[in-house]
Write a structure and sequence with these properties.
11 strands, SH3 type barrels, about 375 residues, 4-stranded parallel β-sheet, 5-stranded antiparallel β-sheet, Rossmann fold, alpha/beta, 3 domains
Length: about 375
Amino acid sequence: MNRASFYGNTIGYSDTSEESSDEDELLLRAELREQEQRALNDLDMAMNAPVVFCIRTYVDFDGLLNGLDAPIPTKVISFSAKEFIQVKRRFDQNWWIGRLVREDAPVGFIPSPTKLETLRHSMQTNLSQLLLSEALNVAASTGNSTGGGKSGSISGASGSVAHPSGKGGAWPAALANGNVPPANDKRVFFGNGISKTNEPAILNLGVSLPDMEPEKTAAQAVPTLASTLPTTPKKKPFFKKGYTGPPYELVPNVRPIVVVGPALKGYEVTDMMQKALFDSLKRYFEGRLIVTRAQTDVSGWKRLNVLLNMDKKALTDRTRGRQMITALEIQREMERIFDLATSMQLLVLDNDTINHPHQIAKSSLAPIMVYIKISSIRVLQRLIKNR
């Protein structure tokens, strides 16, 4: 084979590879355009679509930083922890379509739990790699600065020390200021200012003698990561420190209203004031309001965790029968409230056992608490006595 034919075949192969890369790029652009068009159609359909379910967030999400791989990056919704989102459609495994429960909030893309878990894993991996690279860089720079002192000379027998003003290498300021050990002192000073013979040493010397201590390699310096890394300003974490639970919690489509105060349930003053509030709500939201009375004490919602964490042995234990029945009744009542909320009407929940917001505020019902309060304690006491 001659040289011309050889090079001619090479040029042909390169042209073929360039054509294939151009075709792949065109196909990729076509797929992206098709996906963007489908995303726009789904957003238009979701504008008037009913709410499928509602969630409460437990993490912060910035759509500008973490939504670049979304079908339409400009339509990604950012949110903070303890906000509520109405989900209307499922676009794919990583993205949902919905809106924040806020006045005039736009419809956009919301990350699914799978997407948030992938994002958390990638951030943890990148952080560990960054810390490792910084540790190796600091260890290498420390080794170079320590090795640079080999030009100086110290002789323990004669007591001669190379001064920064002399021809020797540069030594720390502790020696330059006159803090020179005596001539017969043969102690070895380490980086932490402790002598090898447990005798008093010059504090904050910050250098080890290269003739008496071998230099540390980068691999040996990695365990001292916490002490060698420079202090950097802490960034706001994506997930709360120590939080390992799910990023979302399912809540009713319409958060129920729970009224408490001014006194305990059962007092006439409490019943009269709450009844007056219920009557005014019925007149103002006529045809759009549901007032329901809880058939079970939903303030014991924490018992549901006991029911979920029971093993087979505990389920067959007769002594826990009443506890299981109570938990099942609470679960059934909460499911009934969830079903009422699917009508997207204002929901008012009346319960005789709820006297304080903390009894139900952190439950999955996520209620809107209305607290009736009388500022003057004397007036409240007089009303309770007279009524």
